[in-house]
Write a structure and sequence with these properties.
Length: 140
């Protein structure tokens, strides 16, 4: 777990989102959904695109368009949180970060309610086998 957190910190500081990935992302998301994705922080785009690739490789989820979209949009409610806030959340908690599923839902509900509902529940007890798999992939 600590190694994963260190990797996250290093990714946040040193890695930049490759905009060439947008060609793939645009094949999955509608224009409105892409606008939300595009407003996400560099780190959240990297994380979401990496999760998208894992979902695309998973035999259970790869043909489920809602889970492909969820992978790209599940953290859109985090907005542009600083590294400090993210570290604080891990160490002692942070209400804004912990509330990101609800904020994601609010951004998505009028565009794609199904994906919004999935985003709302992506940190809760799994509601389906698909969500359980998604959560396991998200934790990698």
């Amino acid at each position: 777990m600590i190694i994963a957190r260190i990797k996250q910190g290093l990714t946040y500081i040193f890695i930049r989102y490759n905009q060439k990935n947008d060609l793939i992302v645009r094949e999955i998301l509608t224009d409105e959904e892409f606008k939300i994705f595009n407003e996400m922080s560099e780190y959240d785009k990297i994380h979401s695109f990496n999760l998208f690739k894992l979902v695309k490789e998973n035999a259970t989820l790869r043909d489920n368009k809602n889970y492909l979209k969820l992978a790209l949009l599940h953290d859109c409610g985090k907005e542009n949180l600083s590294l400090f806030v993210r570290v604080k959340k891990v160490l002692i908690g942070d209400k804004k970060v912990e509330n990101h599923p609800k904020m994601s839902y609010e951004k998505l509900k009028n565009i794609n309610n199904t994906v919004g509902e999935l985003a709302l529940s992506h940190h809760l007890a799994p509601i389906s086998e698909e969500m359980k798999i998604f959560q396991e992939l998200d934790d990698k």
